[in-house]
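If you are new to this repository, start here. Below is one unmodified record pulled from the training split, so you can see the exact layout before writing a loader.
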Amino acid sequence: METVISRLLKQFERGQLTRRELVQTLTAVTVAGSAAAAQGLRVRTVDHASVLVSDMARSVEFYQRLFGFSVVSEDTENEIVRLGIDKRILVSLRRESNPGVIDHFALGVDGFDREEVTRQLESRGVTPEPVNIDFGFHIKDPDGAIVQLSGVSE
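And here is the target side for that same chain:
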């Protein structure tokens, strides 16, 4: 599945997929991958995508106007605004000098337990990276794409 996700991200970065197509395809890949869940982590959802932006106010207005998203939470220290519907985060915007890039995407793992997930990842040769967030941790795919693993958002 990592190869498929990496290929999708490269297509998106080359402009061959829209954001919507990327998210829809990642969702389909996740559902299809549920058969493999018996072998380990049970990923249930693509939780959110984190997008780097140059103008926070302009980007927030865009997502609110086009999709009806509202601000779910803000991290002013790290210049992050999380948008979604009914308190469920769908898009996380972070102001950066390299805008227009998907910083990471998050997969929601059923029954997420940090120690158990860490053990399973390490047994497969993957080391999770601590990050300054309360929502799980990051791993990198073979090409360096950042994947956040966390509990399934309700």
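Two things worth knowing about this chain: Confidence is low (pLDDT under 50) at residues 34-38. The chain has one domain: 2-151.
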